[in-house]
Design goal:
Elements (H helix, E strand, L loop, with lengths): L9 H12 L5 H13 L11 H8 L3 H14 L1 H5 L13 H12 L29
Helix pairs in contact: 1-2, 2-3, 2-4, 3-4
Protein name: Helix-turn-helix domain-containing protein
Pfam families: HTH_29
């Protein structure tokens, strides 16, 4: 894996310092900003720490620190500080399925049955209720 060297400009350093000194910065953003400041090897760098010492001081792993450096070099400062948006998972059950399930739940048990089971509810492997449902 190639070695990535973080070199911050004066503006980037000022922005990161402002984030670190503000009391309302989210913890992850604070830790990432502080890590970038400590990893800085540019002319404005105040500290020259090695990766293990930085990781230990911030309570993160070496791997996280390396990933942070790679993201900074490849995607820039803003992408490094912002979390990636999560993909919203769509519900496997729609309103029509919920209505059918509630209607089945509130209906009477089949003759001779003492409780609902997968077969007594008609929810076997070939049931139309569970055709598109998979885990």
């Amino acid at each position: 894996m190639p070695r990535y060297t973080v070199t911050l400009s004066a503006e980037e350093r000022d922005k990161l310092k402002a984030l670190c000194s503000k009391g309302t910065t989210p913890t992850k953003v604070f830790v990432h900003a502080r890590a970038l400041l400590l990893c800085d090897q540019g002319e404005f760098a105040e500290h020259k720490w090695d990766l293990k010492r930085i990781a230990q001081a911030l309570g993160i792993t070496d791997r996280t620190l390396n990933n942070l450096k790679v993201r900074f070099i490849t995607q820039g400062l803003e992408a490094t500080l912002q979390r990636k948006p999560y993909k919203r998972r769509h519900s496997k059950f729609d309103a029509a399925f919920e209505d059918k399930l509630l209607a089945l739940y509130h209906s009477d048990l089949p003759a001779g049955a003492s409780k609902w089971t997968g077969t007594s509810s008609g929810a076997g492997a070939n049931s139309c209720y569970f055709q598109n449902f998979s885990t």
